[in-house]
Amino acid sequence: MISNKVLIIGTVWPEPNSTAAGNRMLQIMEQFQLQNWEVVFACAAAESDFMFDLKTIHVATKTIELNDASFDEFVLKLNPTIVVFDRFMIEEQFGWRVAENCPNCLRILDTEDLHFVRNVRHENYKTKKNTTEEDYLKSDLAKREIASIYRCDISLIISETEMELLTTTFKIDERILHYLPFLLPEISETDFNNLPNFESRNHFVTMGNFRHEPNWNAVLYLKETIWPLIRKQLPKAEMHIYGSYVTAKAMQLHNAADGFLIKGRAENAKDEIKKAKVLLAPLRFGAGIKGKLTDAMECGTPTVTTSIGAEAMHGNLDWNGIITDDASEFANAAVVLYSDVEKWKTAQKNGVEIINSRYNKTVFGNAFIKKIKTTQSNLEKHRMNNFIGELLQHQTLKSTKYMSKWIEEKNKI
């Protein structure tokens, strides 16, 4: 049995109560630890007051520097057998150093979601343009992100829609990709029966990091368009907006008279979702899969969202609520779920089915570990089959390496 030492290089220190990305990182660490593999988390970002204390789950931590040879000494001494890059920007910064100092370690890219997809959709939203395949192919960010995917041995893709885009539009060999959604525990019948019932819940809720542009846009959409339509029909209902990193601009939206309440960071997001009757997520652009929506399903809270919000999340299963891109229909759907107990209960059961069928951490976790072990056992051949990746790795070592070294020398002046 292989005993791996795993180095994860993070973009930021994980904040599971602030972002879905923070939760996903802990889920991935758990899979490694279930194999009794040693896990080390390294990061160049500043620490935050809300970062998760990784020492409580026996994960060692290391603060590292960008464009600094001290990382070479660190990684050489650690000698990991697996390195996980948290997003493609981290692979761009540290990938060549890992390849040079630990050439035989397995390199994994956790994309979180495809950044170029999110970027293209956002730009097209601003100009009211429908997104086409050509838009993705023309994206400079796509060229960077896909180069990073090729340079790694395995890239983790969180959405089936993004898997399809990479394999069909960009013609990437599926052998270097691995579909890995959120890894969530099964909701048992006992868990389900212990959820707060319809009668004990009140009001609407939404969640999201205010630094994340799709979330901020959704809050504005709620405030300006959707909430007034709901409030006309449900004058006593309240809209509770939770999210980390609330800005002064966001706080200006708070209006108690209209029942539109900016609550800020939730001490425990799921506790607040369980109190609400319905979660609203009117997302108009974005990528990946949405943590607020799986959180709602786990909490037994029906949702109203858009086609972007629900994208790649439920497959052929019925949604745990209603999906619509029309503001008026969205408001009416929210009122129906809020008022009709039978429709509410059906939506709640649909959410449980989605979690148990599509995010089962045992099923997807086992497949993930199997992919790692299979690739490790045949790494040389795996890389030979990925000639473009080898070519890009060679070019990166020639270009990115010397750019980084130039910055390093400049910083000494």
Structure report:
The protein has 413 residues and is an alpha/beta fold. The chain has two domains: 232 residues, Rossmann fold (3-Layer(aba) Sandwich); 170 residues, 3-Layer(aba) Sandwich (Rossmann fold). 50% of the residues lie in helices and 14% in strands. Helix 12 crosses helix 15. The radius of gyration is 22 Å and the shape is globular.
**How many domains, in number, for the residues?**
2
Per CATH, what is the topology of the largest domain?
A: Rossmann fold
CATH architecture of the largest domain: 3-Layer(aba) Sandwich
Shape, per Cα inertia axes? globular
CATH class wording of the largest domain? Alpha Beta
The low-pLDDT segments are none
Q: What keyword list fits this structure?
A:
413 residues; alpha/beta; Rossmann fold; 2 domains; seven-stranded parallel beta sheet; six-stranded parallel beta sheet; 50% helix; 14% strand; globular
